[in-house]
Design a protein that fits this description.
It contains nine helices and 17 strands. The chain is α/β, with parallel strands linked by helices and 376 residues long.
Length: 376
């Protein structure tokens, strides 16, 4: 698929810089594709989501929790500022340090893959200070992906130290520093499994009250996990999407979630994914499943790239935010509605002053088209 087919022009002022005052305060575009060349669009509001979701639907959310992945460190000798952006943990590690009397000691900690940014090139085997209780040792670069390998050292559990001293990893198109409010609002109300470095943004719209409305409407809610990785911001730099090196992300579908999904499929109940991360999780699991069931409990990593022409096996409807041009997320949405309908929906959203990206408004695609109707 040609990446240029996923391009569109977005006025910069349409990029949401802050969340709505209330979680349910966003607008909602209802997208009902009738065919590859025609779609019905209806302006609505997130607060009324329960009345737009198909009756008796099984709603699937992503329960990943965003970590405070952005660490502001300094060089002890010069005080120079260094930003360390944590990507994913690698495991326990250590290094040997010489004490002033010449005696060596072993310093133990936790190794992470990370990005680093400073005014001057970073030097390996040097310590950086985040706080009195958290330091970062740059060990070198990983051979497989080129990311930094850093050792985090603290007197408290590393996960606790990261949450204490790190900052919310707001995406680069939000042109401001994170605030205390972002610690709550850039996190879903059902987040419970730490590991993401970006939020599953469609889930940010769901409040506990809205989940209650879904239950009253007869919808069940189950959770899966996909830890959103750095690749969510990775630009597509090839002309043909098939040549794009898709990033890997860790995921898990529990036995309870798999049983609920299989039961819903048998009963003819639609599966509604809250966000593209849920689509990737369920469709990856479906491709790992053998036998007659549509999906089975599993875990691992996925680099699944969904685009027009790729069958959607499990998910029937999708709640999603508006995504960046020429992105793999936009290709995934196109696999539901077709390219012409996708552009029609985005043109409508821009014309009617919808807010875009992570803190922006959302669209609900209430059914997916057959594969033959979405090919470019």
């Amino acid at each position: 698929m040609r990446v240029e087919l996923l391009d569109y022009e977005l006025p910069p002022e349409r990029i949401a810089q802050t969340p709505p005052e209330d979680r349910e305060g966003a607008r909602l575009l209802i997208v009902d594709p009738d065919s590859r060349d025609h779609v019905t669009l209806t302006d609505a509001a997130i607060t009324d989501l329960a009345q737009w979701i198909p009756p008796r639907a099984l709603v699937v959310v992503n329960d990943t929790r965003v970590i405070a992945a952005r660490l502001q460190a300094k060089k002890p000798d010069t005080g120079g500022k260094v930003e360390i952006f944590l990507v994913r943990p690698e495991g326990p590690g250590s290094y040997e340090r010489l004490m002033p009397d010449g005696e060596p000691i072993v310093v133990e900690g936790e190794i992470w893959r990370a990005l680093g940014k400073a005014s001057k090139p970073l030097r390996f085997d040097r310590d950086l200070e985040v706080s009195e209780d958290l330091s970062v040792r740059i060990l070198g670069r990983a051979e497989d992906d080129g990311l930094l390998r850093v050792l985090l050292v603290s007197n408290q559990p590393i996960a606790d130290a990261i949450e204490t001293y790190g900052q919310v990893p707001l995406p680069p198109y939000i042109k401001r520093a994170p605030t205390e409010d972002d610690h709550a609002r850039y996190q879903t109300v059902f987040a419970r499994r730490p590991g993401a470095v970006a939020a599953p943004t469609a889930g940010l719209h769901l409040s506990n009250a809205l989940l209650g409305k879904l239950a009253i409407a007869g919808c069940d809610v189950v959770s899966v996990t996909l830890h959103v990785g750095l690749g969510t911001f990775q630009p597509v730099q090839v002309d043909d999407l098939d040549q794009h090196p898709m990033h890997h992300e860790s995921f898990e579908v529990s036995r309870a979630a798999a049983r609920a999904i299989c039961a819903a499929k048998r009963e003819g109940r639609p599966i509604v994914a809250i966000g593209t991360t849920v689509v990737r999780t369920l469709e990856a699991a479906a491709r790992m499943t053998e036998g007659d069931e549509p999906i089975a409990a599993c875990s691992g990593t996925t680099n699944l790239l969904l685009q027009p022409g790729e069958p959607i096996r499990v998910v029937d409807a999708l709640l999603t935010n508006f995504h960046l041009p020429k992105s793999t997320l936009l290709a995934l949405v196109a696999s539901f509605v077709g390219l012409k309908n996708l552009h029609a929906a985005y043109a409508h959203a821009i014309e009617h002053q919808y807010r875009f990206y992570s803190y922006g408004d959302a669209m609900l695609i209430r059914k997916r088209l057959p594969v033959e109707d979405v090919r470019p």
